[in-house]
């Protein structure tokens, strides 16, 4: 399986993605406030509260990462030669790309048709953003978001990279550990655009039997978007890798 996944003829490493769509910008900001980030090489690894508690609805955002991002947006829009870009619009456009739940769902919609077979299923590894409030310490944090923001030719440009950790599981392994068979049988419905993929994900992720089950193959899926906020152009794609350090010893 590893040889198959690393063969670009069988499984392309790069996949073009649809444009991001976030219905609730306030929700996106709350999610982003709970993220660790790297902004132009500077690491922001401390999030609200030692347990990583997220900001609640109608509560002011408490994130040094987002405060710094807002300040940099303002500075860049005030630079000589930069025209036609509003700092609030720039910040809002970045928030759309920092919404992990939307990015994760988009990535799964791309990767699932390639890898999910009758006996195989793609699931995200359970991380802090999947966990209910009050149980944050039980899950690992997601990989920090990387944001590169710069001015070139009078336009503000940005490259956002959000990496998701997925696992390719054998259904037989999950069933042997007691994962609900009905939920597995429902999995094929995620391929339908009419069914919300995230709800199926959450049901299996919160199945007590899912805890501590290692995937057959570990996958890293990075959603990368390059945006020119001056011209309004962008390109968004998914880069999938099979990390040797995670798969060593687990897959033959």
Characteristic terms for this protein:
252 residues; alpha+beta; 8-stranded mixed β-sheet; 9 helices; 8 strands; 31% helix; 23% strand
Overview of the structural elements:
- The protein is elongated.
- The N and C termini lie close together (8 Å).
- Helix 3 (64-77) packs across helix 4.
- It is an alpha+beta fold.
- It is built from 9 helices and 8 strands.
- The longest helix is centred in the middle third of the chain and has 16 residues, at 100-115.
- The model is unreliable at 49-55 (pLDDT under 50).
- Strands 1, 2, 3, 4, 5, 6, 7 and 8 form an 8-stranded mixed β-sheet that branches.
- The protein has helices at residues 2-5, 25-33, 64-77, 87-97, 100-115, 171-176, 181-185, 197-205, 244-247; strands spanning 14-16, 37-39, 42-44, 120-124, 145-152, 155-170, 217-228, 233-241.
Compact description:
The protein has nine helices and eight strands. With 252 residues, the chain is an alpha+beta fold.
């Amino acid at each position: 399986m590893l040889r198959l996944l690393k063969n670009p003829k069988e499984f392309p490493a790069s996949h073009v993605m649809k444009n991001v769509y976030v219905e609730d910008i306030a929700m996106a900001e709350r999610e982003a406030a709970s993220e660790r980030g790297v902004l132009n090489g500077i690491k922001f690894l401390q999030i609200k509260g030692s347990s990583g508690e997220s900001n609640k609805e109608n509560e002011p955002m408490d994130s040094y990462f987002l405060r710094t991002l807002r300040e940099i947006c303002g500075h860049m829009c005030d630079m000589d030669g930069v025209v036609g870009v509003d700092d609030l619009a720039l910040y809002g456009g970045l928030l759309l790309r920092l919404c992990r739940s939307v990015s994760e769902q988009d990535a799964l919609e791309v990767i699932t048709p390639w890898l999910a077979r009758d006996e195989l299923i793609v699931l995200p590894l359970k991380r802090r953003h999947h966990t209910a409030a009050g149980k944050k310490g039980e899950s690992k944090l997601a990989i920090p978001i990387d944001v590169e923001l710069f001015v070139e030719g009078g336009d503000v440009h940005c490259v956002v990279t959000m990496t998701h950790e997925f696992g390719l599981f054998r259904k037989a392994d999950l069933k042997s550990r007691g994962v609900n068979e009905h939920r597995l049988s429902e999995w094929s419905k995620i391929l339908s655009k009419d069914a919300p993929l995230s709800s199926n994900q959450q049901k299996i992720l919160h199945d007590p039997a899912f805890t501590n089950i290692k995937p057959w193959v570990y996958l890293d899926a990075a959603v990368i978007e390059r945006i020119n906020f001056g011209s309004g152009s962008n390109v968004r794609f998914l880069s999938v890798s099979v990390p040797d350090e995670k798969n060593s010893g687990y897959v033959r």
